[in-house]
Amino acid sequence: MSTIASAVSRMVTPVVGDTFDVERVRRDFPALLQSIDGKPLVYLDSAATTQKPDAVIEAVERFYREDNANIHRGVHRLSVRATDAYESARRKVARFVGASRPEEIVFVRGATEAINLVAQTFGRTHLGVGDEVLISHMEHHANIVPWQMLCEQTGAQLRVMPINDRGEIIIDEYERLLGPRTKLVSIAHVSNALGTINPVQGMIALAHARGIPVLVDGAQAVPHMKVDVRTLDADFYVFSGHKTFGPTGIGALYGRYELLDQLPPYQGGGDMITSVTFEKTTYAKAPQRFEAGTPHIAGAVGLGAAIDYLEAVGLQGITAYEHELLTYATEALSGLPEVHLVGTARDKAGVLSFTVDGAHPHDVGTILDQQGIAVRAGHHCAQPVMERFGVPATVRASLAFYNTREEIDVLVRGLRGVIEVFR
Length: 423
Ligand code: PLP
Description:
Blueprint: H1 3-10, E1 15-16, E2 19-20, H2 22-26, E3 35-36, E4 39-40, E5 42-43, H3 54-67, H4 77-97, E6 105-108, H5 111-126, E7 132-136, H6 145-154, E8 157-161, H7 171-177, E9 182-188, H8 200-208, E10 214-217, H9 229-232, E11 236-240, E12 251-255, H10 257-260, E13 273-276, E14 281-283, H11 297-313, H12 315-334, E15 339-341, E16 351-356, H13 361-370, E17 373-374, E18 376-378, H14 383-388, E19 394-398, H15 405-422
Parallel strand pairs: 5-17, 7-8, 7-9, 9-10, 10-11
Antiparallel strand pairs: 1-2, 3-4, 6-12, 11-12, 13-14, 15-16, 16-19, 18-19
Helix pairs in contact: 1-3, 1-11, 3-11, 4-11, 5-6, 12-15
The structure holds pyridoxal-5'-phosphate.
C-alpha cells in the first residue's frame, strides 16, 4: 500500500450515525494541535487558507523523498513515477469535480491563475469593442481584475449584477443584464466575504438559454460541498488547492473539452508544443497546451492526497456538519448586540463577516489573536462588496469541518472581551 493510501486508511470515516467525529478529524491536522501564547489555537481563517492533514503533508514529503523527477519527457524510472503521480492527480481532480475526462483539467497555481488564463485565452478570442463580461457585486478581486484588464485590452465592458442587503444576487436584475453583447458570465459559487452560496445552476441555465458561457469561481465551494461541473453545466470551473486542504501554488481549471481545446495557448514554453522550428511552432492539445514549463508536480500530488482525504471523510457529512456549526455560530454572534453580521443570505456557507461597534476590525483581529483565535480582518480582496455594505473592512471568521462548537464559544468570549475594551 502506498504511503498516501495508508495515511488515508488510518482514518476511520468520522461520520458515525448522525454524529460527525470532529475530534478524530482534528487529530489528522497537526497545525491545529498547537498553542499560541499558552492558549489552544482556534483557527477560524480557512477561507484564506486551510490547514493540511497528515495525509497531504506525507504525500508531498514522500514525493520529494522517493519519486522526485521532471515529468513527461523522461525515460528513466523516477520520471515515469513522477509523471504517473502527476497524471493520477489530474484524474482524481477530474473525478472529484465530475469532469467527463481528465483532459478537461488544467493544473494552474490557483483560482487566480485559472481566471487569468480564461480571460487571456477565451476572453482575447471572443471579446471585442462593446462586448460585455458580467460579474456580480460580491466577487473576489481575482474575479474582477482579470476582466478589467481584458476590457482595457479589447475595448469590452465590465457589467456588474447587483446584490440585495442580505448579500444575495438579485436574479431579476441578472436576467435583465444578460444581453446580446454579453459574451461571458463569471460568478463566485460561494462568496469569500459574505458566505453567500449563489444559485449557480439556475444562473448557468439562464445564461445558456441565451448562448452565453459561464465561468464559476469555486474557490470557496469545493472545500465545503460536493461539486459536479456537469450537473451545474458550467463551461469553466476554477478552484485552489490550498483552500481545499492541499498545498499552496496548485489549483485547477476545469473547462468543457470542446471549448478548452479551441482556445489559444496562455503561456509559451516547454511541454506545451508538438514541434518547434524558428519558422513555426505547433501547439499540443488541451490540457498540455496550457501547462508551459515544469509544473508544481509535488503540489498536484498533494492535491490528489487532499481529495483522497476529503472523500474518505465524506463531503456529505462535511457539508452537514459545517452547516450545523454555522447555525450555531450565527446564533451565538447574534446574541452580541455590538456585533453586526455582514452577509445574511438564506443560503450560506461557513463564513461569518462582522463588525464590532466602535472597534476597527484590525484591532478586533489583534485582540483575538492574543487569545489564540485566528480570524482575518480587512477587505478580504473584495473591496466593492465592502463598499456596497458601507464598511471599509470586516472581521471574518471562516469555518472548516475541523472547527468545533467549543471554538465558537471561545470566539464569543473573545468578542465579549473586545466589546469591554471599546465600550
Ligand atoms: N476566488 C475566491 C472566491 C476566493 O476566496 C479567492 C481567495 O481567497 C480567490 C478566488 C483567489 O484564490 P487564490 O488566491 O488561491 O488564487
